[in-house]
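As promised in the previous annual report, we have extended the structural survey to additional targets. Below is the entry for 10135_t:CDS:1.
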Amino acid sequence: EQRYIWLSLTTNRCEFCHSKDSSAQIYWVFRVRCCTRCLVEKTISQQKLLKEGKISKTIMSCLPYIHPCGYRLYWHADILKAQQEFDNLAPKEIASWVLKKHQIAYKITHDAKIREHAYNHQQYQNGVNIGHQIDHDNCTRRAGMMLKELGQELLCDTTNLQKSSTYREWEKVFDPHWEEIMWEKWRVAMKKECIKTNNLKKGLNIKDKKYLIFGRINVMSSQQGSLGRKSFATAPSSSRNTMRDRGSTSRGGSGRKPVRYRA
Ligand SMILES: [Zn+2]
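The corresponding structure token record, generated without further manual editing, is:
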């Protein structure tokens, strides 16, 4: 409880890097106030945990998480601490430990929801377009985490990629309702950009190439074509519908009206 009071009273600075970054906000689920960059640094995605296979699903199920755009993120230190506790349990203690952790995670998640709701309501009353803000923030969080993972995969620094024109172009069409295929396309586009800017002697693998078939150019030009200069920032709902349609068109065979691409 003390932690909650402290979080409410402190300034808007990120508690880790102390920057007065405008993205710094309270993540009640993790009981921290931090900027997006530090959040990305200090969390780990479920996808990565599953890929590495070092942490059991039981432990993941015991911890609270956030899920920007459907990408589940855990506080990395929480995961490590829980794993350590779990490893030291006697077999007969496991069931009660798991039960207790579930209860705590439930309580934290429930509590966070109430606090976030109250905060959002307050923002809304202050005239902030809170729905749009949340959508945009969530896209930035997911994109940030995927870029970090790309850097780990390619063993290079990806922090500057956010300044690249490819990133900026895609950022205009970021959509919290993107299907996974769109995030994959975005990832492959960023991977290509990363390989190019860092002069890496690596190429795309077979899985990556799959997402190039319906590549960025089509997506971007048709976006420009159908919505003109309207970006995600000004037209979240219309771009959402367009991206949805395109998502199913890209996978072929939904029987919907085909999207016309400009050459
Ligand atoms: Zn920070």
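Residues 222 and 228 are 9 Å apart (CA to CA). Residues 94-125 form the longest helix (32 residues). These points will be discussed at the next consortium meeting with the crystallography subgroup.
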